[in-house]
Amino acid sequence: MFIDIACSQKKKYNQNAYGDFFASNRFPNMNRVVAVLSDGLGSGIKANILACMTATMLLKFMENHFDIEKSCEIIMNSLPVCKVRGISYSTFSAIDCFEDGKAKIVEEGNPDFIWIRNGEVLKPECQTIQSKDFKNRRMKVYNINLEKYDRIIFCSDGATQVAMGTKRFPLGLERDGLIKIILDKIKLEPEISSKDLSEYLVKQIELIAPNRELKDDTSILSIYCRDPRKSLIFTGPPFHGEKDNYYAKTFMEFNGKKAIAGGTTANIISRELNIPVVAKLSMNAGKLPGISEMKGIDLVTEGILTLTKTLEYLESGKYEENAAKILMDFLLDSDVISFLVGAQMNKAHYDPNLPIEIEIRKNIIKQMAKVLEEKYLKKVDVQFV
Predict the structure, then answer these.
(1) Of the candidates 174, 180, 205, which has an alpha carbon nearest to the alpha carbon of residue 13?
(2) Using one digit for the tens of pLDDT, what is the confidence trace for 171-213?
(3) Where do the domains of the chain lie, and which CATH numbers do they carry?
(4) DSSP, residue by residue, 203-259
């Protein structure tokens, strides 16, 4: 079972910094995912710093195998209290879950999480821990067992309190209103990814806000338990040319989505398996070469230039509509990504005037794997052949 996790956020109207902060990490060797969503008091830079400090500290505790319950208690008892409003400087939700379904969730101050199974909202029991130092702080601890196709939704109070004081939502959207939006969307798209669901929910919340101006920072953290979506990207000719046929067959027999990044690589597959390469004229090409088509292969792009631009897009989150954007979407729509990287240097890239990142395919793939693992929480395997 794969833990698909994503967080979407929107700043308070007219603010330059997020007052909520999301932090997470995946441990492929342990089949474990940890994540924290923190909401800083107020908005802007001050709230961002407080939320970031809380989430980062808690994540570090969890990463280093501190018990999540004890870690959260330390954080809860360490956070200062606003002298004016008498409330905590930041609130948080944290989860430590394994792919066998075992999960522990701890919340302090944030809206109660939403657990959905088969279109129904479950109501798990929790243990309440009172702060030893602050009477108004209580931590909720849940030990649950997740099943395939379960969903968990965390949010900051900007989501449940949106439009508060309006005629339609005098008390805000509230938790029940958010649940209805979630269930309606899941009914229409049962297999919607965590990324798409979290983005959709944030957009819907923004639409509810008067004049579409959010009065508070809004974050949605979505978790979806499902079968992993696997993909394989073949790029570069194998070092030993006599093994071209073996790797071509290995690639085509892969059980999942398949992509080729490189004209030479595509020609090898075409030659060894007698599959024609058909150039596809597209408005998406821009300054990059366009994409091609091959029967049985989901995506065929040019190599080094497209990979380099894809890496740039993954790192920055900014992109143009071209082949690199299509490859980026291909990667982000996958959970377990394998790269089959040919170790034979393409003579076309021996030009000393080209940037170093265009000369060395291996380095590009290594950097891409790191970004996919650390920023997008993907499982990545790289094999050089």
Answers:
(1) 205
(2) 999 999 999 999 999 999 999 999 999 999 999 999 999 999 9
(3) 2-226 (3.60.40.10), 230-384 (no CATH)
(4) HHHHHHSGGG--SS-EEEEEEEEE---EEEEEES--SSGGGHHHHHHHHHT-SSEEE
